[in-house]
Model the fold of this input.
Amino acid sequence: MSTLGVNTGWRARAACRDHDPELFFPTAHSGPARAAQAAAAKRVCAGCPVREACLRFALAHLPHGVAGGLDEDERRAVRRRGAVGRPVARPGPRVLARRARAGGCSAAQVAMWLGVSTRTVHRWTAGGAA
Done:
């Protein structure tokens, strides 16, 4: 079970194995549509038991798409910082909510993506930008 000389046996336990692979490759180029598409993939990654192994593989081998809970821009930033092999700091739901709202997403959309109420989204985003 090796791809590019890397142990990928963890893939059999990946949360994404039963999802359409297209989910993990956003088609929108930028803005709220891209954020929404990436968020849908990241929700699958969030509960994955092999997320760390997937992220290590993605950092080394995958230039595109969402893998290990990060999109390609986030992985590029990790590589730039030289943080490969160290825990990855991810923005919390409040920051994600603020960014999505600032990008034009409705409170209802953000609430659905984050699994919270619209009231919570309004509370998190009151008076502040990302």
